[in-house]
Fold this sequence. Notes:
The protein is α/β, with parallel strands linked by helices. The protein contains eleven helices and 14 strands. A hairpin with a 2-residue loop joins strand 13 (332-335) and strand 14. Helix 1 packs antiparallel against helix 2 (55-72) and helix 5 crosses helix 6.
Amino acid sequence: xxxxxxxxxxxxxxxxxxxxxxxxxxxxxxxxxxxxxxxxxxxxxxxxxxxxxxxxxxxxxxxxxxxxxxxxxxxxxxxxxxxxxxxxxxxxxxxxxxxxxxxxxxxxxxxxxxxxxxxxxxxxxxxxxxxxxxxxxxxxxxxxxxxxxxxxxxxxxxxxxxxxxxxxxxxxxxxxxxxxxxxxxxxxxxxxxxxxxxxxxxxxxxxxxxxxxxxxxxxxxxxxxxxxxxxxxxxxxxxxxxxxxxxxxxxxxxxxxxxxxxxxxxxxxxxxxxxxxxxxxxxxxxxxxxxxxxxxxxxxxxxxxxxxxxxxxxxxxxxxxxxxxxxxxxxxxxxxxxxxxxxxxxxxxxxxxxxxxxxxxxxxxxx
Length: 367
Ligand code: MRU
């Protein structure tokens, strides 16, 4: 574990095993407060309010949550047990729509029942706990591999701009976009990192700046609208971001503002990398057009974090939580299994054959 991060645990089971303990990220950077979630409603609320957030972390929290809720089902009749479990999974998956990791983790948990149809409800409960733990462990391994693969493409002393928080707090351990930075830190790469503050919920200022500083990384905070001038000064050698859903054609949904950064990077000829586990690639989603973008409350823009309201009462507000970056602007999507979309990045994605070739390549790698 990277020095400074060892005491930050995004999601874990409570010692008694009857709850999910999360680090309440809405209280950072002021306080490190852990809360225990014991009911489906508490887990839903924690995900919706971003107490736990980041695509892989919400998948893990939901899987842990489903396991905790499964323990509370008293039915011994398997049909009733399965029906109740599916109801909880459906409810949890409605908490946030954009990150595929949430529904994918819940589907994976439910598949335990289909794979072991002859087991008892008590055996299912044990298997569900095991599956949730496996989801977290696999994510930790994926994050490390993503970091190693990206680090191979970086040189010591580079300036790296990142957006939102795709770090240790957003996953099981290390992060996706921040993983190469942490591994580079251990190996003396001396990166200069610029963290976009990430309006409106300030994940960059509150979380990325916080965790990088804790780990001793050289990090400078900027407002989102300062990226262009920073790039023009030649301070940015690469932009590295995470992802919430990658469509089959390589379009990427990530935190609102990512698309704008990709356009800027393209303008300045700066490589733009998207880092995420293969579990974030959604082959059932043909293009970015099909990704559901979460829209959030107006108050996040008009008053949250301010001492008093900063916009006129009744003003119309547009507050999408994510945007879609078209594949043409992305240098490569780096996963634990390698780089995707890289070789074909300049080919015409209007050609359906290219997409189906990619689908075959993806299947191969996953089998
Ligand atoms: O709304 P958030 O804070 O959950 O958004 C998080 C992001 O957009 C991250 O970049 C993404 O989930 C990747 S986290 C490894």
